[in-house]
């Protein structure tokens, strides 16, 4: 069994969020939801993180940052887009400076809808991301074996 | 040297990280409970490290891994010396070297966050070093030896004689364990001004080395604390030690962080007021 | 005996031959040859003398008489030469000629009037002086070799040339200043050999004054006003010590009690008889080894070319001061004067270690740390037990090797990167791997386990706590040592951190290190390692015989102390680890992907710049901590000066009363 599932560390970045989803996300860390029960830690550092949680749409200001943070995360990693803006740009979709959802810049694995997304659905999104993470780890291991053979 | 001592030394190499990991796990659980949370499983630190080994390692410079090896190596040597029953002062010196290697690893990555983190870590070392040196000196004055085996079989009154030293040591233990109010070099919690301080640019197996090193360090510090009560025998000494050790968690959760200058002043003041006074008065209380 | 005279005379003759060399190339060749001969002779002496007690040498009557006159005439000539140099003093330096006159007057008074004590043995060899001779010949010699190339570039720069050209093929006549420079270096080596082998105090004093003269000349070498002022300051402070030394000799000639001109008789006099002259000589030792309140001359000396700083002010000349203090150390055992001496050393150690944290100039860091380490040695000398003498001698050895390496490496670095600022050395491990590795070894040797300095500290702690002069004395010294070690750790690690930092932008191409400099640097790096790995050998070969001999004379308690084999084993494990880890890393480096440093995701050009406010690209800059707001250099210096001055005054008064 992979230990990735037992200790997912997350990185949270608000691309151009209105902070609604961010507050919901941080609510997950409070005693009411206490995601640390599952070993989830908010690291605030891409180099330690396994799951990249992005809120808000991507604009010119945040595009490079999202790319940089994604590049600095060690594999295996997954990306979870949280909230309507992160999914598609939301109500800002047609703004002149907005590119759209997060998937315009980096590959997104799990989409968590809502405006703002509820903590329960965020946790659900992370749990789904864990399965993808584990699958990815397995694939990588198999690939390594094939290379070795 | 007796086979018993050797077995204890090698037991440390194998079991030290296990004990340290458990201490870290209990620490996290206790912290959670103090914050009215349920908290992670006791084995969570072990899961974390095993996970880190499954991850890729990204480095800023390949040399950082070398410095981390140095950190782990000297940490193990320090603990080995301690549990072998050998020289306490030598063990402290090795511990210092190990700390410096960790700083070098962070300096090597040269990001502003790691830079400030390691500068602050050095500052903390400067703050606690005098007091930590006074601990072996105190034991030497009481038992006439730097050897751990002599200290363990010392007089049961030594903890009374060395009360000031013990207080000073507990103060420095807070720094050593990177607890608030002295967690200035690498906070346990993200989203702070230093990100993760020293460990900011370490990832994957590099970070795992740091974590394992810290487990060893936990065991070593527990061992140091135990020495004060050691002549009472393990059945009394061990519970006291563990309780004192976890008292640090309470301190951690009830204090805000200090600046480096107040940390330095406070720790040197404590060193002088408790440590030095205790040493100077020793001839009258033995 | 022959070897001793060879070492002293050969250095002198070699100096003359080098100064007379027809071309620069021939001069370089002669320097290398002389250094090789000196090193061989010293090693031969060490092999013959290792693990043996001291030997004293008597000279024939006629020879003694001639030499006596020669040394006296030399002393007067020296004073005349110094007075001649004094034509360039400023009005506020009036005290310098006065000191010269007073000192010469005292010496002549001692030599010409009254009953002279009989001198049976003007020269001697014991294992401690052999060790010193090894340091002088090998470390000093390597520094001379380093100086060949360094001075070549230095003079070329001074003459406004960009490329200095090769030394060996250079056919031009050496400039007068260059020839004189090397002559003075070798004269200095000769004088150092004289100091460590002379048993006749008058002769020892002559050699002592020669080193003062040499250091004055070498510090003023560049001829700038700053250099000349600093040279005079060094001269003035060393003369204060000289006057004190001369006063000791007068006391030994005309004073009550001990009536001798022999060093071994003086030491044998014990604290009851010999304390007053010993304290007077100790003042001379303090000034020579740049302890507070005399410390500022050594800092001023940093204006001199790097080989001079390395030779005079880190590894050999200042060692003359502590050498004499350690020689006299049995006299100080268990006395208040000794305790005060230790406190002077301790206060200097603490104050200069703290000041060193403030410094950005690499040479100043080295200078302050030199003073600090000498302070540590003085602390040991003042205690005067077998264990502290053991520690002090080993500290001298390790410090000489590591500090010479550091000084030369900083000098070479300065040539390579054009700066001696610590901040400019960022990323040296990547820009200049060899020189950085040498710097790192030197620094590890200065303060980290398992290297020698730490061994010394360890022994000091043990010895201090076993002291018994008054209540709390040992604790006081041990606490000073503990508090002084902490800033030491800070400033060295901070500097190491700068060296190992990965450069944020691509490193420029690298020119090789010149050959002569490389030879000296590689040898010293190897020596640092070897001295540490083989320290038990140095211990049984040179240090133990010395302390055992003193114990057999009943001057100190028998050395009860021995390093347990288990400690040695553990240290060897650490040393092996420090060697094997880089080796393993080099053989099988872990292959990890490289990524830029974390800059909150705003990286623009890798780790070098980030996107700041208003979309502007900003370079990343981060500097070390110098705590200049927290520790005021001026305040620390003042505290140190006043404190040490007061302690020294007390020491003198206490000994006289």
From TrEMBL, chain A:
Record key words, sorted: 4Fe-4S, Iron, Iron-sulfur, Metal-binding
Supply the InterPro entries for this chain. Complex_I_20kDa-like, NADH_UbQ_OxRdtase-like_20kDa
Gene3D superfamilies of this UniProt entry? 3.40.50.12280
| Residue stretches in coiled coil | none
Q: Which cofactor does it need?
A: [4Fe-4S] cluster
Ranges for domain NADH:ubiquinone oxidoreductase-like 20kDa subunit come to 18-128
Which one of the record's GO molecular function terms can you name? metal ion binding
What family is reported? Belongs to the complex I 20 kDa subunit family.
The protein depicted here goes by the name: NADH-quinone oxidoreductase subunit B family protein
UniProtKB/TrEMBL annotation, chain B:
Q: Where is this protein localized, as stated in its record?
A: Membrane
* Major localisation: membrane
InterPro entries, alphabetized: ComplexI_Subunit1, NADH_UbQ_OxRdtase_su1/FPO
**GO CC: one term?**
plasma membrane
Q: Where are the transmembrane segments?
A: 6-26, 66-84, 90-110, 122-143, 155-175, 224-246, 266-285
Membrane topology (UniProt) = Multi-pass membrane protein
Q: Print the keywords alphabetically.
A: Membrane, Transmembrane, Transmembrane helix
Protein name in the entry: NADH-quinone oxidoreductase subunit H
Give the originating organism: Thiorhodococcus mannitoliphagus
Print the organism lineage: Bacteria, Pseudomonadati, Pseudomonadota, Gammaproteobacteria, Chromatiales
UniProtKB/TrEMBL annotation, chain C:
Keyword field: Membrane, Transmembrane, Transmembrane helix
**An example Gene Ontology cellular component term from the record?**
membrane
Residue ranges of domain NADH:quinone oxidoreductase/Mrp antiporter transmembrane in the record: 198-472
Pfam families named in the record: Proton_antipo_M, Proton_antipo_N
Record flagged with keyword Endoplasmic reticulum? no
Keyword Transmembrane helix assigned: yes
Q: Start and end of every NADH-Ubiquinone oxidoreductase (complex I) chain 5 N-terminal domain?
A: 120-153
Q: Where in the cell is it found?
A: Endomembrane system; Membrane
Transmembrane annotation, as ranges:
6-24, 31-49, 69-86, 93-110, 130-148, 180-197, 203-223, 235-254, 266-286, 298-316, 336-357, 364-384, 390-413, 434-455, 475-497, 518-537, 568-587, 636-656
Membrane topology according to the record: Multi-pass membrane protein
Q: What PANTHER family does the database record attribute to this sequence?
A: NA(+)/H(+) ANTIPORTER SUBUNIT (PTHR43373), NA(+)_H(+) ANTIPORTER SUBUNIT A (PTHR43373:SF1)
State the name under which the record lists this protein: Na+/H+ antiporter subunit A
Organism expressing this protein natively? Thiorhodococcus mannitoliphagus
């Amino acid at each position: 069994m992979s230990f990735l599932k037992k200790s997912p560390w997350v990185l949270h970045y608000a691309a151009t969020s209105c902070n609604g989803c961010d507050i919901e996300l941080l609510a997950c860390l409070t005693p009411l939801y206490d995601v640390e029960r599952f070993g989830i830690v908010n690291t605030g550092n891409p180099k330690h993180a396994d799951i990249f949680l992005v809120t808000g749409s991507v604009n010119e200001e945040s595009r490079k940052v999202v790319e940089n943070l994604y590049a600095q995360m060690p594999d295996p990693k997954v990306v979870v887009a949280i909230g309507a803006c992160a999914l598609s740009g939301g109500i800002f979709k047609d703004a002149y400076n907005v590119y759209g959802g997060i998937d315009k810049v980096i590959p997104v694995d799990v989409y968590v809808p809502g405006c703002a997304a509820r903590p329960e659905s965020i946790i659900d999104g992370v749990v789904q991301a864990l399965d993808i993470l584990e699958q990815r780890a397995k694939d990588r291991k198999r690939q390594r074996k094939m290379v070795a053979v | 040297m007796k086979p018993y001592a050797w077995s204890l030394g090698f037991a440390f190499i194998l079991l030290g990280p296990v004990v340290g990991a458990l201490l870290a796990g209990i620490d996290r659980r206790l912290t959670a409970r103090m914050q009215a949370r349920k908290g992670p499983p006791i084995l969570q630190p072990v899961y974390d490290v095993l996970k880190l080994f499954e991850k890729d390692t990204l480095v800023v410079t390949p040399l950082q891994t070398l410095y981390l090896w140095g950190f782990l190596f000297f940490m193990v040597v320090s603990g080995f010396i301690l549990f072998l029953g050998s020289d306490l002062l030598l063990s402290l010196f090795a511990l210092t070297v190990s700390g410096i290697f960790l700083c070098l690893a962070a300096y090597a990555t040269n990001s502003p966050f790691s830079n400030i983190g390691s500068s602050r870590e050095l500052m903390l070392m400067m703050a606690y070093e005098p007091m930590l040196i006074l601990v072996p000196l105190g034991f030497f004055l009481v038992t006439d030896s730097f050897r751990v085996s002599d200290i363990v079989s010392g007089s049961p009154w030594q903890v009374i004689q060395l009360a000031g030293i013990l207080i000073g040591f507990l103060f420095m233990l807070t720094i050593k364990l990177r607890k608030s109010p002295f967690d200035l070099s690498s906070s346990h919690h993200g989203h702070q001004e230093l990100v993760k301080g020293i460990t900011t640019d370490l990832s994957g197996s590099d970070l795992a080395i740091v974590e394992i090193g810290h487990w060893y360090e936990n065991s070593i510090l527990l061992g140091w604390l135990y020495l004060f009560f050691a002549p009472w025998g393990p059945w009394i000494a061990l519970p006291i030690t563990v309780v004192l050790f976890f008292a640090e968690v309470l301190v951690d959760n009830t204090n805000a962080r200090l600046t480096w200058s107040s940390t330095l002043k406070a720790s040197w003041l404590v060193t002088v007021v408790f440590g030095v006074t205790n040493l100077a008065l020793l001839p009258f209380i033995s | 005996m022959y070897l001793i005279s060879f070492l002293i005379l050969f250095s002198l003759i070699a100096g003359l031959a080098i100064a007379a060399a027809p071309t620069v190339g021939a001069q370089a060749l002669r320097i290398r040859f002389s250094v090789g001969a000196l090193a061989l002779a010293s090693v031969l002496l060490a092999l013959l003398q290792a693990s043996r007690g001291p030997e004293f040498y008597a000279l024939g009557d006629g020879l003694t008489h001639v030499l006596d006159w020669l040394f006296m005439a030399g002393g007067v000539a020296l004073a005349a030469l110094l007075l001649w140099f004094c034509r360039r003093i400023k009005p506020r330096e009036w005290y310098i000629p006065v000191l010269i006159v007073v000192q010469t007057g005292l010496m002549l008074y001692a030599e010409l009037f009254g009953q002279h004590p009989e001198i049976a043995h003007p020269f001697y060899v014991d294992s401690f002086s052999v060790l010193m001779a090894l340091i002088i010949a090998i470390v000093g010699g390597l520094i001379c070799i380093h100086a060949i190339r360094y001075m070549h570039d230095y003079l070329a720069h001074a003459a406004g040339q960009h490329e200095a050209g090769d030394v060996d093929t250079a056919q031009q006549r050496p400039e007068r200043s260059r020839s004189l420079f090397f002559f003075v270096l070798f004269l200095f080596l000769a004088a150092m050999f004289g100091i460590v082998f002379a048993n006749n105090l008058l002769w020892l004093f002559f050699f002592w004054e020669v080193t003062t003269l040499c250091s004055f000349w070498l510090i003023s070498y560049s001829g700038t006003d700053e250099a000349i002022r600093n040279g005079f300051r060094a001269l003035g402070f060393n003369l204060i010590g000289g006057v004190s030394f001369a006063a000791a000799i007068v006391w030994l000639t005309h004073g009550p009690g001990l009536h001798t001109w022999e060093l071994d008789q003086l030491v044998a006099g014990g604290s009851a008889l010999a304390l007053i002259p010993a304290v007077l000589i100790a003042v001379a030792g303090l000034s020579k080894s740049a302890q507070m309140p005399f410390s500022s001359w050594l800092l001023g000396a940093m204006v001199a070319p790097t080989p001079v700083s390395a030779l005079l002010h880190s590894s050999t000349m200042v060692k003359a001061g502590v050498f004499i203090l350690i020689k006299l150390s049995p006299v100080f055992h268990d006395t208040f004067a000794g305790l005060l001496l230790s406190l002077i050393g301790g206060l200097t150690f603490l104050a200069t270690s703290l000041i060193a944290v403030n410094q950005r100039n690499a040479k100043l860091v080295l200078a302050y740390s030199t003073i600090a380490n000498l302070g540590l040695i003085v602390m040991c000398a003042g205690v005067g037990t077998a264990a502290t003498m053991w520690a002090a001698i080993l500290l001298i050895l390790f410090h000489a090797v590591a500090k010479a390496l550091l000084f030369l490496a900083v000098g070479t670095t300065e040539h390579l990167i054009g700066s001696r600022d610590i901040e400019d050395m960022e990323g040296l491990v990547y820009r200049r791997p060899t020189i950085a590795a040498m710097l790192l070894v030197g620094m590890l040797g200065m303060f980290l386990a398992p290297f020698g300095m730490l061994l010394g500290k360890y022994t000091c702690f043990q010895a201090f706590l076993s002291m018994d002069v008054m209540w709390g004395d040992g604790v006081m010294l041990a606490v000073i040592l503990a508090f002084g070690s902490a800033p030491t750790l800070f400033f060295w690690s901070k500097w190491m951190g700068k060296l190992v930092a990965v450069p944020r932008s691509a490193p420029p191409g690298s020119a090789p290190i010149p050959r002569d400099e490389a030879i000296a640097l590689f040898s010293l790096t190897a020596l640092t390692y070897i001295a540490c790995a083989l320290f038990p050998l140095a211990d049984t070969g040179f240090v133990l015989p010395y302390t055992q001999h003193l114990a057999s004379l009943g001057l100190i308690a028998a050395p009860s102390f021995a390093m347990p084999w288990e400690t040695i084993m553990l240290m060897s494990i650490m040393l092996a680890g420090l060697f094997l880890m880089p080796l393993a890393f080099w053989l099988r480096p872990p292959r990890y992907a490289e990524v830029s440093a974390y800059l909150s995701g705003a990286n623009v050009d890798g780790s070098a710049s980030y996107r700041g406010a208003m979309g502007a690209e900003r370079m990343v800059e981060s500097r070390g901590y110098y705590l200049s707001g927290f520790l005021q250099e001026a305040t620390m210096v003042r505290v140190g000066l006043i404190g040490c001055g007061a302690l020294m005054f007390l020491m003198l008064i206490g000994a006289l009363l």
